Structure prediction request, 95 residues.
Amino acid sequence: MLTHKAVHDVMRDVLKRVLPKTDVSKIEVQDYADAAGESALEITIVLSKGNVVALNGNELAKVLEGIHSALSQQGDERFPYLRYLTAKEAKQLAL
Prediction:
């Protein structure tokens, strides 16, 4: 399993490749157990511009596919559960 720092770096690379014009201010990685009790990752991505960010389903699917594939290639089989927040939402949640 990769360290949180390594997952963070992989996630940043995927975001730069898939969403090059999206400004990301923070990526937070935490261990997570899914509904079946399997080891997973919860990755929170804070988008820094504005109060609303428009990402379409195709873009979101490409990000998920990209991070899952990159983690698997490095031997980390944990599923990445992604959560997107605007800077305003992150501030309200104190992230």
About this structure: The mean pLDDT is 91. The two ends are 25 Å apart (CA to CA). Residues 4-90 form a domain with the Macrophage Migration Inhibitory Factor fold (CATH 3.30.429.10).
